[in-house]
Design brief:
The protein has 250 residues and is of the alpha/beta class. The chain has a single domain, classed as Spore Coat Polysaccharide Biosynthesis Protein SpsA, Chain A. The radius of gyration is 17 Å and the shape is globular. The model has no long low-confidence stretch (mean pLDDT 92). InterPro entries: Glyco_trans_2-like, Nucleotide-diphossugar_trans. It holds the Pfam family Glycos_transf_2. Belongs to the glycosyltransferase 2 family. This is Glycosyltransferase family 2 protein. Keywords: Transferase.
Length: 250
């Protein structure tokens, strides 16, 4: 049984000593206080653990250190295995939330009896903290819509496990989150969005999503291998994906 009101926040991290403190603080600053923060260290080689240690005085935080590097999908899955809340949210160790993020999304997901909600978000430059642009989102999206427009940012998602049951992310680096949302929507219908930024996504040279060609390859693979689309269906969805990706960056 899940805690009926609690949000379990899953934060994977790897060599995040420079940024993880601000990410943790953005979770602890939420106006929605009934939360559990699970930080999963994916075998960091820097001082990430030392940066996390002072925050463990807050009883809402659980810190898990993996014995070997397993990748972000497995780190999130381990976090979910230890989660208690009805609701699941994700925040990587270099991204940030606005303070009302969880409050507004819990209200929305309950109002619409939805399996999943998401929001717009802003990107910001790693070196200067300068805001780059706002990624706008539709008010609703279903499975077919998400196939053609992979617009849902992992850092903006809130999932209601009383609707979805327990779930795991597949090991598709850079595409594990979208594959998960597709699975949820294929089984559970429509997701609802808030077209106002509730999170900040850090853009860095090492960001997986910053490598456009590799991301396109992973998206094609996701269509074929996890969604089992035919070649023709994949071509149609991929062409829409490319068009929407270009629009998102204009």
């Amino acid at each position: 049984m899940y805690d009926k009101k609690q949000v379990s926040v899953i934060m994977p991290c790897y060599n995040a000593e420079e940024v993880i403190g601000k990410s943790i603080e953005s979770v602890l600053a939420q106006t929605y206080e009934d939360l559990q923060l699970i930080i999963v260290d994916d075998c960091s080689t820097d001082k990430t653990a030392a940066k996390v240690l002072p925050y463990l005085q807050d009883e809402r935080i659980l810190f898990i250190q993996l014995p070997q590097n397993a990748g972000v999908a497995q780190a999130r899955n381990v976090g979910m295995q230890h989660s208690l809340g009805r609701f699941i949210a994700f925040l990587d160790s270099d991204d940030l939330w606005m303070t009302e993020k969880l409050t507004r999304q819990v209200e929305l997901i309950q109002k619409n009896d939805a399996p999943l909600v998401y929001s717009a978000y802003q990107t910001f430059q790693e070196t200067t903290d300068k805001t780059l642009k706002t990624i706008q989102v539709p008010e609703t999206i279903d499975y077919q819509g998400l196939l053609r427009n992979t617009i849902i940012g992992c850092l903006t998602v809130l999932v209601d496990r009383t609707k979805t049951g327990d779930f795991t992310m597949p090991n598709i680096p850079g595409g594990e989150d979208t594959a998960t949302w597709l699975h949820i929507l294929k089984e559970n219908g429509v997701a609802y969005g808030i077209n106002q930024p509730l999170a900040y996504y850090r853009v860095s040279g090492s960001s997986l999503s910053g490598n456009k060609w590799k991301m396109a390859q992973r998206t094609w693979k996701m269509y074929r291998e996890t969604q089992n689309l035919s070649f023709v269906e994949t071509c149609l969805c991929f062409s829409s994906y490319v068009k929407n990706a270009i629009k998102k960056r204009i």
